[in-house]
Amino acid sequence: MKAEKFPKEGRNMRKILTFAISLALLAACLFACAEGPGAAKNVEGTLEELVQRIYGNVSVALPPVMDMELTKQGTEFNPNIEYFIGAKGIPFEEGLVSEAAIGAHAYSLVLLRMKPGANIEDAKKKIKEGVDPMKWICVGVDPGDVIVDSIGDLVILIMSEHSKLLHEAFQKLAE
């Protein structure tokens, strides 16, 4: 009679241990997926400070800009809210629009701090689908230069010939 390598009790413990390790690895993978780019930690600072940090990380000349706050009242009563973000009913707490001060430049950067519990992916989709890259009438940007992204509760809309550089500067806010 051949002796067993592991007693029956040892084999059961090995199965239980293997199962527990597998569950722990699965939980770690699910946690890592939940912490993806859209679910990153919120970026601290006022919207004005964050826009200045973005501009400070861009090495190209941008047109002169004017900043304008978008407030909750602005979203409810401003008939032009769609002009800035492409959609009504986006659940944000505060917003800042930075647009070209001279109409000959197609340029817009919008930061929105979303309300807690807001569906950020849905808001980004509505903004991306609704925004008009030719909103300046005489000038516009290529639809490929329209970027909508988020870090934590912060959503950005970029429409510029330098969208990719501005997007990279935005992503550095998460570092």
Overall description:
- Strand 2 (92-100) and strand 3 (108-114) form a beta hairpin.
- This protein folds into two domains: 8-34; 38-174, no CATH class.
- It has 175 residues and is of the alpha+beta class.
- Mean pLDDT is 82; it is low at 28-38.
- The N and C termini lie far apart (64 Å).
- It is elongated and about 80 Å long.
- The protein is built from six helices and five strands, in the order ααβααββαββα.
- It has a five-stranded antiparallel β-sheet, sandwiched between helices.
- It has helices at residues 8-34, 47-56, 72-77, 81-85, 120-130, 163-171; strands at residues 65-70, 92-100, 108-114, 146-151, 154-159.
Compile the SSE list and pairings.
Layout: H1 8-34, H2 47-56, E1 65-70, H3 72-77, H4 81-85, E2 92-100, E3 108-114, H5 120-130, E4 146-151, E5 154-159, H6 163-171
Antiparallel strand pairs: 1-2, 2-3, 3-5, 4-5
